[in-house]
């Protein structure tokens, strides 16, 4: 597939980002492209003070490197994820290894200017405590990732100087960079790979400078410095064998170590690509490890702990384009792949993107992660942020290079929309972007191709991350619910969890990840059930987070994932889940219903039961943005809550319950309402009202949860960032299956339209699996009646009403049918309508139009519809691709003269029943 002999036998540098032949053209772009010029000027200015330091003391920057200056230790020993000690002297000062795999630390990393020169003290590091603001001697393991970050900071200055030498020819930059580079390279040449004293998995993931081969970012700066200073080194007869040996050693460590079944392969591959591109051909070196060797291991050859890109890409769902990790990691994988192929294509000029079409597909599929305001959802170890603009910049660069004008315009429009929405400002943050972003964006002003609405679907299902997203409405009326299980990497133990977007914010957010993956707040709270909008059984629901194989089963949904439905007033999903810790069955039905205006409301019905009979407890947890939570009875009177010590590990619950504070409770068997209030400066109150179904001896809690680490300035106002979240908890001390948790989420802005006047709940004793929700909309004339069963096979019978099937939603306007929506249905009877399956459960919707009704069905059915004496005949019109394909009269039902019968032989996206004119 690839030709790895990309440079012939000519040793020409630089070549990773640019070459000498392109230098003149690049300099011209600096005159016309402001964002490129800005980065170059920024780097020049940033280097000025360091150049002055080095002019006074040539060893100033060298002495700030984190090295074993005195001990010159070459052997490094770890104790699991922490540095233990080093020993055995080398001929020169060696590079100090990182302090800890855990980045969470109580100590501040010093600025370069404040580093003690040639610091290498047996007492450890003399760093300032973040809270005590006092310097203390600490063991390196207490410094988190500070040691490696300092070296990366220093080497980034060296990299900048090397570039400026190439650009300007001014030797002051080369003289600044070369000694620091050489000192580090010589120190790493004698340094050995670390040894884990505990013989844990750490032994198989460590790099040469860091605890994880995926964090060896200093490789990029070293390789880039070598590339830009190559001619200088040659002119000054610098022996480059040491550099080559270090790059080979680093490449070998990356190939040898890693985690072969997640994103590590790709993050490692980026470093291997840099190493492969900077080295000469295999024949140049006695060990044969040159460009071809490392590029082959990057793209084609897999090892036990480093899979090739070709094999790694098989992990993608090639149908939906989703990578099996939480969103933040998934979109980062796309960026990494685009960077790798851009680098390779720069070397080969063979349009390498064509060999891997899944990368382009994934970049566009990532829009399905977005809330309506352009920020990603936050399940698992994710947070709310925009999609990386770099993903689209690099697609545009490829399209422009190979004259793919239509695609270039499309993606340029996407990026332009991000710019116009103030989500992105075009700029370069590093050399990669400086050389590979297109100078200008082409746009198509005649078509609006770039809105999120055109790049997302009303529902989207990704089984490989157990995610189902629903959307309704636009702009300030946009509502979204994301339902997730736990499948793939960087997942949490969250059961059946939801995130909810309304009123322009992620009002019902996920909590994100903790301080670090090794910190107690992550292990005990953020990655566990209590941090999520879910149901906990017996206070013990749990399973392994991070790498989790606990997906939900998608039982029913409307519309089908990715489809644009003809009937767009309802979306829903019903998902099932097995909770392993308590051996429990759970089921969640979540729907968005458009009201009689542009506003929508959300229905949430959660069933949960242990498989074994006996004592059990089920707790529904919901976190909402805001400063307060008020709870009212069914008469809208405030309920009196009392302080409680419930919800704690001491009472037998998960340790995560101990993170709840300000705990208050009350008890009620009646319906209640809960009102979350979010106050923002100079804005009306942002309200989320929950209409909660009553249940015998239901305990209601108001608590405060820790801050959400998922929310951002794009999904929450500044007033609640890093603040505790008010949280509602509903507790049942019995199975909540036949009498599930049932809520209607009613978001609105104070002083503006509230779509709901009232909500009431009902059930039928003879049919305990049936739940009835009655919603009175704000005009007092429109009524929605939702009848929900536990499965397609359940039956609900009440007077003249009959339903065998999952769900029906009936809207009446002033007692007349406005629309009827049925799904997972075998037979439905009500208001004179009788709709019957021909064998399979069907999804059907019908809504009133002038002189009749419009309907859709996905299966063959028989429709018996009521008619008035004044309208005894009607005509059925069937459409395909917008054109009438059949038309016929209805026949009178022989058993009911007030009904017309229409037999529908297959599914239709559009059909009409029009009453004949008199």
Identify the notable features of this structure and list them briefly.
alpha+beta, Heparinase II/III-like protein, single chain, Chondroitin_lyas, globular, Hepar_II_III_C
Explain what this protein looks like in three dimensions.
The protein has 918 residues and is of the alpha+beta class. The protein is 23% helix and 32% strand. The model has no long low-confidence stretch (mean pLDDT 96).
Instruction: Please give the number of β-strands.
Output: 44
Please work out how many helical segments DSSP would assign: 16
Instruction: Output the radius of gyration.
Output: 32 Å
Q: What does the oligomeric state look like here? A: single chain
Cα shape: globular
Which structural class is indicated by helix and strand composition? Answer: alpha+beta
Overall mean confidence score, pLDDT: 96
- DSSP strand content: 25-35%
| Low-confidence blocks of residues | none
Residues in helix, %: 10-25%
| Largest sheet entry | 15 strands, antiparallel
Describe the SSE topology.
Layout lengths: L22 H10 L1 H23 L10 E2 L4 E7 L2 E8 L4 E2 L11 E2 L16 E5 L5 E4 L7 H23 L2 H19 L5 E2 L21 H18 L5 H16 L7 H15 L12 H9 L9 H4 L14 H22 L8 H9 L23 H13 L3 H16 L10 H6 L15 H4 L3 E4 L4 E6 L6 E6 L1 E6 L5 E6 L2 E4 L11 H7 L8 E3 L8 E5 L2 E6 L11 E10 L4 E11 L5 E11 L7 E6 L4 E5 L9 E2 L17 E8 L3 E7 L7 E7 L5 E8 L19 E8 L3 E14 L6 E9 L2 E11 L4 E7 L6 E4 L2 E13 L2 E15 L2 E5 L4 E8 L2 E6 L3 E6 L7 E7 L2 E7 L1 E3 L2 E9 L3 E8 L3
Parallel strand pairs: 2-8
Antiparallel strand pairs: 1-4, 2-3, 5-6, 6-7, 9-10, 10-11, 11-13, 12-16, 13-14, 15-21, 17-18, 18-19, 19-20, 20-29, 21-28, 22-25, 23-24, 24-27, 25-26, 26-29, 27-28, 30-31, 31-32, 32-34, 33-34, 34-35, 35-36, 35-37, 36-39, 37-38, 38-44, 39-43, 40-41, 40-44, 42-43
Helix pairs in contact: 1-2, 2-3, 3-4, 3-5, 4-5, 4-6, 5-7, 6-7, 7-8, 7-10, 10-12, 12-13
């Amino acid at each position: 597939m690839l030709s790895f002999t990309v440079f012939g036998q000519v040793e020409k540098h630089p070549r990773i980002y640019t070459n000498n032949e392109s230098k003149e053209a690049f300099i011209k772009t600096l005159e016309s492209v402001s964002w490129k010029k800005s980065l170059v000027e920024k780097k020049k200015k940033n280097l000025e003070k360091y150049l002055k330091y080095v002019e006074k003391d040539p060893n100033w920057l060298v002495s700030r490197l984190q090295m074993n200056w005195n001990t010159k230790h070459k052997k490094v020993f770890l104790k699991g994820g922490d540095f233990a000690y080093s020993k055995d002297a080398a001929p020169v000062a060696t590079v100090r290894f990182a302090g800890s795999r855990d980045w969470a630390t109580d100590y501040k990393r010093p600025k370069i200017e404040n580093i003690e020169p040639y610091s290498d003290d047996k007492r450890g590091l003399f760093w300032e405590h973040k809270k005590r603001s006092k310097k203390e001697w600490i063991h390196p393991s207490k410094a988190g990732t500070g040691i490696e970050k300092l070296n990366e900071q220093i080497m980034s200055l060296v990299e900048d100087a090397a570039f400026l030498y190439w650009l300007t020819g001014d030797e002051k930059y080369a003289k600044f960079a070369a000694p620091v580079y050489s000192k580090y390279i010589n120190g790493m040449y004698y340094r050995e790979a670390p040894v884990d004293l505990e013989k844990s998995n750490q032994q198989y993931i460590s790099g040469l400078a860091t605890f994880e081969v995926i964090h060896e970012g200093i490789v990029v700066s070293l390789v880039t410095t070598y590339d830009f200073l190559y001619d200088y080194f040659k002119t000054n007869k610098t022996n480059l064998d040491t550099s080559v040996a270090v790059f080979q050693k680093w490449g070998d460590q990356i190939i040898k170590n890693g985690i072969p079944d997640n994103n590590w392969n790709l993050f490692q591959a980026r470093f291997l690509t840099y190493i492969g591109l900077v080295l000469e051909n295999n024949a140049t070196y006695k060990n044969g490890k040159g460009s071809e060797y490392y590029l082959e291991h990057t793209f084609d050859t897999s090892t036990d702990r480093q899979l090739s890109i070709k094999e790694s890409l098989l992990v993608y769902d090639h149908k939906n384009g989703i990578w099996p990790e939480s969103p933040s990691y998934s979109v980062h994988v796309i960026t990494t792949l685009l960077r790798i192929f851009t680098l390779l294509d720069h070397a080969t000029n063979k349009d390498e993107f064509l060999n891997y079409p899944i990368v382009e597909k994934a970049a566009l599929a990532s829009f399905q992660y977005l809330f309506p305001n352009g920020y990603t959802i936050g399940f698992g170890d994710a947070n709310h942020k925009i999609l990386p603009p770099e993903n689209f910049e690099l697609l545009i660069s490829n399209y422009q290079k190979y004259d793919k004008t239509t695609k270039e315009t499309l993606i340029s429009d996407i990026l332009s929309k991000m710019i116009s929405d103030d989500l992105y400002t075009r700029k370069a943050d590093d050399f990669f972007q400086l050389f590979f972003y297109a100078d200008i964006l082409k746009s198509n002003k005649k078509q609006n191709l770039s809105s999120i609405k055109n790049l997302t679907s009303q529902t989207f299902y990704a089984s490989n991350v157990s995610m189902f997203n629903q959307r309704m409405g636009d702009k300030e009326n946009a509502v979204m619910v994301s339902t997730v299980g736990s499948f793939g990497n960087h997942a949490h133990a969250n059961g059946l969890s939801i995130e909810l977007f309304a009123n322009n914010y992620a009002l019902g957010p996920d909590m994100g990840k903790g301080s670090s993956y090794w910190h107690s707040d992550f292990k005990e709270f953020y990655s566990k059930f209590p941090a999520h909008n879910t149901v906990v059984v017996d206070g013990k629901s749990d399973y392994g987070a991070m790498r989790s194989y606990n997906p939900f089963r998608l039982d029913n949904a409307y519309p089908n994932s990715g489809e644009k439905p003809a009937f767009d007033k309802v979306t829903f999903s019903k998902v099932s889940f097995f909770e392993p810790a308590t051996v429990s069955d759970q089921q969640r039905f979540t729907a968005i219903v458009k009201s009689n205006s542009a506003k929508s409301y959300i229905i949430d019905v959660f069933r949960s039961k242990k498989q074994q009979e006996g004592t059990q407890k089920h707790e529904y947890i919901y976190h909402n943005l805001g400063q307060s939570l008020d709870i009212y009875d069914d008469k809208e009177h405030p309920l009196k809550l009392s302080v409680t010590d419930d919800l704690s590990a001491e009472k037998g619950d998960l340790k995560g319950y101990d993170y709840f504070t300000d705990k208050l409770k009350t008890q009620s068997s009646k319906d209640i309402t809960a009102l979350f209030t979010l106050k923002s400066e100079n804005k009306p109150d942002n309200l989320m009202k929950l209409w909660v179904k009553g249940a015998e001896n239901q305990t209601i809690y108001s608590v405060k949860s820790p801050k959400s680490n998922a929310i951002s300035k794009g999904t929450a106002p500044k007033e609640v960032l890093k603040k505790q979240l008010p949280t509602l908890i509903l507790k049942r001390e019995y199975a909540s299956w036949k009498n599930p948790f049932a809520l209607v989420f009613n978001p609105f802005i104070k002083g503006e339209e509230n779509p709901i006047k009232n909500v009431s709940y009902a059930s039928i004793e003879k049919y305990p699996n049936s739940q009835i929700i009655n919603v009175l909309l704000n005009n007092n004339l429109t009524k929605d009646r939702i009848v929900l069963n536990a499965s397609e096979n359940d039956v609900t019978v009440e007077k003249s009403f009959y339903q065998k099937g999952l769900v029906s939603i009936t809207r009446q306007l002033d007692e007349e049918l406005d629309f009827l929506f049925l799904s997972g249905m075998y037979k439905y009877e009500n208001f004179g309508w009788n709709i019957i399956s021909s064998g399979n459960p069907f999804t059907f919707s019908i809504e009133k139009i002038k002189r009749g009704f419009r309907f859709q069905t996905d299966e063959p059915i028989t429709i018996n519809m009521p008619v008035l004496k004044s309208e005894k005949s009607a005509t059925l019109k069937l459409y395909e691709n917008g054109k009438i394909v059949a038309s016929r009269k209805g026949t009178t039902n022989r058993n009911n003269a007030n009904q017309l019968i229409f037999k529908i032989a297959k599914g239709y996206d559009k059909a009409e029943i029009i009453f004949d004119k008199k």
